[in-house]
Specification:
With about 425 residues, this protein is of the alpha+beta class. It folds into two domains: about 180 residues, Barwin-like endoglucanases (Beta Barrel), CATH 2.40.40; about 160 residues, Barwin-like endoglucanases (Ribosomal Protein L25, Chain P, Beta Barrel). Helix content is about 25%, strand content about 25%. Strands 3-16-13-15-14-17 form a six-stranded mixed β-barrel. Strand 7 and strand 8 form a beta hairpin. Helix 9 crosses helix 10. It is globular, with a radius of gyration of 29 Å.
Length: about 425
């Protein structure tokens, strides 16, 4: 009955409207004469910027100087040989997404490294490697370290920041359910109740407790700011009041893009040397967050990326190459532009304070959410107060040479030994 009434009401309304259409004054003013508008010059739309090069080969490489001319000494060559030797089992089986090398390229160097005497480590690199510049070789280097923060295995007063292990619903998308990442991997996310793949919870959601009470806590940290920076480093230690230590390392991330909050602060005019501004180092950013707790929390949540951890036992933090990273020798790099496991020679601008500490031979054994693009590196400085100070203030420009096994340049169509 109500339905019939509504239908009658709608019909009545239409009758009224139709009646209104017919009640039109016949003496309305004549329309104004048409006056054509002047033609506007056509401005073609601005084309979108070209996509960034997919990898090192797409960007372009050029032969670098002969290794023997670089003046390698024991201080740099010895630890690099040890790190390279540890990387070899992965180099021989891992696909190189940079397009520069194939696993078989590394066989001769890895066989020699296994028994090469440390007394002549520099001769090893001169004998088995040649160098390339990716793009123009101009690089930017920051630093990271293994932080040690206050934390416990069980929740207790003063320790209420959860350190989460890997959630069961965090998975990689099945092919076809999401676009692959630039390196070919499928992204992390989750499948909702309808079976649709969606992005995983972002930092603000997790801070608000969306993963609470699910038994995911590996431990509990005391300070949310310190834990935020431990996540950026990708590994660290939780030290309890009784002196016990839990070492944690990267297990996965939530698939969200990393946002450097230093860049956000700079865009807001919070970084600089003027009144009320803060240094752009990690120490300066922490000082801002502590001085402005509410704004600081909101700032940290601008970085939607979240890192999940696993407990680590044994030697050192483990890098993306699945081998321990070593202080003063391990680099994080973008594997689309540097083969993970390859030695890298850095020469930093001496005008930048502290940057020359990164000069010398390193080995690319890790990756990082902020380490994207050609010649973008993060240098590892170990643990402790000195490492924190150096890593927090490290930001330098310079040149990077990638070491490739001899014979690779010929396969790539490049003449070795160029300058």
């Amino acid at each position: 009955m109500m339905h019939d009434f509504r239908r009658l009401a709608c019909v009545a309304a239409l009758i009224v409207l139709s009646g209104c259409v017919q009640v039109i004054p016949q003496d309305r003013p004549a329309p104004l004469p048409y006056r054509p508008q002047p033609a506007q010059a056509y401005t073609p739309p601005t084309p979108p910027p070209p996509p960034p090069p997919a990898n090192a080969m797409a960007l372009g490489v050029q032969a670098g100087p002969d290794v023997a001319s670089l003046g390698l000494g024991h201080a740099g060559a010895d630890p690099a040989l040890i790190a390279f030797r540890e990387s070899c089992p992965r180099l021989l089986v891992r696909r190189d997404n940079s397009g520069l090398t194939q696993p078989t390229d590394w066989q001769s160097a890895c066989q020699a490294a296994a028994s090469w005497p440390m007394a002549s480590a520099a001769d090893f690199f001169a004998g088995y490697f040649e160098t390339v510049r990716v793009g123009n070789g101009s690089g930017y280097v920051t630093g990271y370290y293994e932080p040690e923060i206050a934390g416990t295995r069980t929740r207790q007063p003063g320790f209420d920041v959860p350190v989460y292990g890997l959630p069961a619903d965090l998975v990689r998308a099945r092919p076809g359910d999401a676009p692959p990442k630039p390196n070919g991997d499928m992204p992390f996310g989750r499948y909702d109740e309808t079976g649709v793949f969606v992005p995983y919870y972002e930092r603000a959601d997790i801070d608000a407790g969306v993963l609470a009470c699910k038994g995911l806590e590996l431990g509990w940290a005391a300070d949310p700011t310190e834990f935020f920076f431990l996540q950026i480093q990708g590994s660290g230690r939780l030290r309890a009041p009784d002196g016990s230590v839990i070492r944690i390392g990267y297990a996965a991330d939530n698939g969200r893009d990393y946002t450097g909050i230093g860049s956000v602060m700079k865009a807001r005019g919070l970084i600089g040397t003027g009144p009320g501004q803060y240094a752009g180092s990690m120490q300066g950013i922490i000082a801002y967050i502590r001085d402005h707790p509410d704004d600081g929390r909101a700032l940290m949540e601008q970085n939607k990326s979240w890192v999940f951890f696993r407990e680590i036992t044994g030697d050192g933090p483990i890098g993306a190459l699945s081998v321990p990273v070593r202080a003063h020798v391990s680099l994080a790099a973008d594997p689309l532009f540097v083969p993970l496991g390859a030695p890298v020679m850095l020469s930093m601008d001496p005008a930048l304070a502290g940057a020359t500490l990164a000069n010398g031979l390193w080995v690319a054994q890790d990756t990082g959410g902020a380490i994207k693009g050609a010649n973008r590196f993060d240098s590892f400085w170990g643990a402790g107060a000195d490492a924190r100070t150096i890593a927090g203030g490290m930001a330098g420009h310079g040149q990077a040479l990638i070491f490739l096994p001899k014979g690779t340049l010929a396969r790539l169509g490049l003449a070795p030994g160029a300058q």
